[in-house]
Amino acid sequence: MEKISFLFPGQGSQFVGMSKSLFNQYEIAKQTFEEANEILGIDLAKICFEGSLAELAKNDIAQPAILVSSVVAFRVYMQEIGITPQFCAGHSLGEYSALTCAGAITFADAVSIARFRGRLADQIALQDVGAMSIIDGIDKSKVEEECRKLTTPEQVVAISCYNSPTQTSISGEKEIVLSVEEKLLSTGCMVTPLLASAPFHSPLMTQASELLRAELEQYSFNWFKFPVISNVTGLPYNDPDQIVANLVQHMIKPVQWQATIQYLKRKGITLTVEMGPKNVLSNLVAANVEGIEALCFAEKEDRQSLSNLHERFPFLRKHFPTIITRCLAAGVATPNTNWNNEEYQAGAIVPYKRIQDMLQQLKEEGTSPTEVQMTEALELLKTIFQTKKLPVKEQEQWFKQMVDETGNYYTLRDTLNRILQELVSSSDLMLA
């Protein structure tokens, strides 16, 4: 029986036409792009499908585009295959995608954060003082040695990604990065400069990391549906409270990708599924360990392999949550502080039974919930919450999270905004 980890790629995985096939085939992919378009105020789908590579290379476009493409792949996978992972891990920017798909960051927040991070990168890149390059075909210890030799108190160069035993990336001041490249090229290794890239995962990003901290502190984070492995430690997060500190350190410390893949191997992972625009990370799995199959959901043949896996192990499938199932879960999971039995019967038991009946009807018909049914379920849940006297802040969090994780924001945004406004109004009346 397979044990699965999802992998999420970082910058450099973008290309013109990314996610177009999923967009054309699946409604949830369209809804995800439409939500991103609204958040960003641009037609991201058009840029991804018809724009120029130069436009897609801009950090403030590339970073949200890659994140959105990764979430699209994840949502389609969960809808069509539905076998949940034991772990999620993202490379560099991909860690934001992993945190999003694990439910720790809402999709809307993640898109905004990715754009902010991309703008920071653009500002650093425009200064033209830093550089970043991939070094392939040489032991990491030799790269470390050359970086150590050429680093001075005034000029720093260091390994920024430990991708495999023989692939790293280096970041630092442009002049000294070029010097390290020259030294390493003489050994016969391959050097690939990352054009227009900020010197990510190096001390040169310290000032930018503090700006990122100020931005991240404006957001709230949720518990993980699946464990997410941190680039900084190569180990899973223990608590959402670690997210801000880890993502700040993530800007100035190297990506421990080799340690990440080795951790997955130790935990018995037998299959990785890359959730992104194209196959980028799968080759790095084989470069680090043996015995883990690596598939990419963007590849048609790999999607077929995953469908076959689903057919072989149907008991592993956990259906992608719908608004109906999430309303039922929330109705049970939230505490009750209303001890009036008559009120509880009318305002909690009866609405809950109605949602159960809706789910049973959908199962019998083999259909997905309509917008009308989803709206009714949310209204019934609001009645349950109010009857239980759940604090308004908790109600808001539940509604936002369930609409986000089911990929229904674009469809239900008017309903969600109305419910949230009603909650605020009722809270104001109670305080008056």
UniProtKB/TrEMBL annotation:
Reactions the enzyme catalyzes: holo-[ACP] + malonyl-CoA = malonyl-[ACP] + CoA
BP term (GO), one: fatty acid biosynthetic process
GO molecular function: [acyl-carrier-protein] S-malonyltransferase activity
Domain Malonyl-CoA:ACP transacylase (MAT): from-to ranges: 7-320
Coiled-coil regions listed: none
Pfam families: Acyl_transf_1
This protein's name: [acyl-carrier-protein] S-malonyltransferase
Lineage, broadest ranks: Bacteria, Bacillati, Bacillota, Bacilli, Bacillales
